[in-house]
Amino acid sequence: MGSRLGWRAMVGLGGLLATFAPWSAQATEHEGEDWRPSSGYSLKKDKRHRRHHEEAAMGGSGLAAMYPRLGGHVGFALPVLNITDDDTTVIGGDFFSLGLTPGISLKLTEQWTLDFEFIAFSRWDFEKDGEPERVGTSFVVDPGLLYNFGGFTAGVRLAMQVGAGQPFNLGVVPIVVKPFPITEHLKWFLELDLPLFFTGAPGDSGISFGPQIQTGIAF
Q1: In this predicted model, what pLDDT tens digit does every residue of 29-86 receive, in sequence order?
Q2: How far is CA 149 from CA 3, 61, 101, 178, in A?
Q3: Fewest CB atoms within 10 Å of the CB: 24, 71, 73, 164?
Q4: What is the dihedral of CA 168, 172, 178, 179, to 10 degrees?
Q5: Gyration radius from the chain CA atoms
Q6: pTM above 0.90, yes or no
């Protein structure tokens, strides 16, 4: 009698466990997922949410901004005026000059850039006060440090005219640049340069100031 009762108790206990086993497995499964909110939230949505925040932190491009970063520009420079110790000349009336301005830039941060620019000038001086017309070509090296203020960029360059026939010289060139976006990576720019040159030769020295306008494409 006792053995039969024990046998029935074991069968009853086994049935009870079998009845609740699926519930137990389901409960265990949910326990592994109980970190999720219950209002229709999914793992896929969570991944999209995190990716959105990561891209926002990178400027929306999906690519991390890496510094330093290489860039550059190419354009034309048009001197409009030249003031020296001896004379003042104006484009159109006294001369015409055009410069080709390629440059390589090293973007250090979002604001600071080192810009390595080179300008090849070709100049035509018109006849004046009995002096014959003259033509010539010069080359200027003018690296600079630029700061991006958001709507515009400003900075200072150090410049030197190089080549045969050039006197000892050193230039300081404040600049202001206004960019106009074309694509995500290309900009058209307008630039105002205010070069001030100090020149020297045996028995002679001088100062010249020659504002110029520059325009081109930056990348």
Answers
A1: 444 444 344 444 455 555 555 555 554 444 444 445 689 999 999 999 999 999 998 8
A2: 92, 21, 23, 10
A3: 164
A4: 60
A5: 37
A6: no
Give the separation between CA 197 and CA 127, rounded to whole angstroms: 24
Measured over the CA atoms of residue 178, residue 180, residue 185 and residue 191, the dihedral's sign is: negative
How far apart are the C-alpha atoms of 122 and 96, rounded to whole Å? 9
At residue 130, the pLDDT reads 82
Task: Check if the beta carbon of residue 216 is closer than 8 Å to that of residue 101.
Answer: yes
Identity of residue 57: A
DSSP output for 21-64: HHHHHHHHHHHTTTTS-SSS--HHHHHHHHHHHHHHHTTSSSS-
Tell me if 189 sits within 8 A of 173, measured CB to CB: no
CA proximity to 68, closest of 104, 120, 31, 29: 104
